From TrEMBL:
Function: Required for dimerization of active 70S ribosomes into 100S ribosomes in stationary phase; 100S ribosomes are translationally inactive and sometimes present during exponential growth.
GO cellular component, one term: cytosolic small ribosomal subunit
Keyword hit for Cytoplasm: yes
Subunit structure: Interacts with 100S ribosomes. Associates exclusively with 100S ribosomes, which are dimers of 70S ribosomes.
Similarity comment: Belongs to the HPF/YfiA ribosome-associated protein family. Long HPF subfamily.
Name of this protein: Ribosome hibernation promoting factor
GO MF, one example: ribosomal small subunit binding
Keyword Ribosomal protein among UniProt keywords: no
Cellular compartment(s): Cytoplasm
Amino acid sequence: MRYQITGKQIDIGEALQTHVKTELGTVVEKYAGRPTDAQVTFSKSAHEHVCEATVHLSTGLTATATGKATEIYAAFDAASEKLDKQLRRYKRRLKNHHQERSQPVEVSGAASYILAPEPEDSESDDLQPIIIAEMETRIPALSVGEAVMQMELAGAPVLVFKNEKGGGLNVVYRRDDGNVGWIDPTTVA
């Protein structure tokens, strides 16, 4: 597994990096046979240390967790516990659905942009948004059930995925009424 351990405005020592690799490796190996990579970012918010951890699995799942504590090791441990819980739920759901995947999930790359809102006092007729960040994102090829499961496990409000059956881009999202919505542009009513 590839690790990317970084600190925002703080130094990350060798001891912390070794601790992260050992503990995260143990958690991930317990539930997933083929993890691909992990990004762990440490930062400081007021008096608390914040640890943001993201693990990508070959099955297409992206598990993300954030931990906060006054000590940096405790912040990582909190994030690690949340990842452990997500991966345990994921493994349980896979067993319940009897859908062990024989092949890794195909992942396509795409551009992701963050747009700045237009100021309220702006009287410009130019409706072009200002791009403030551009990133690479991954679009997994999943079944609708797997997409819903991944969205719920990640705690995300929306997930864009390539439908394995139709091959087109689809979206699943959490509706205001608590149900899950599914947008399939290839289906015509």
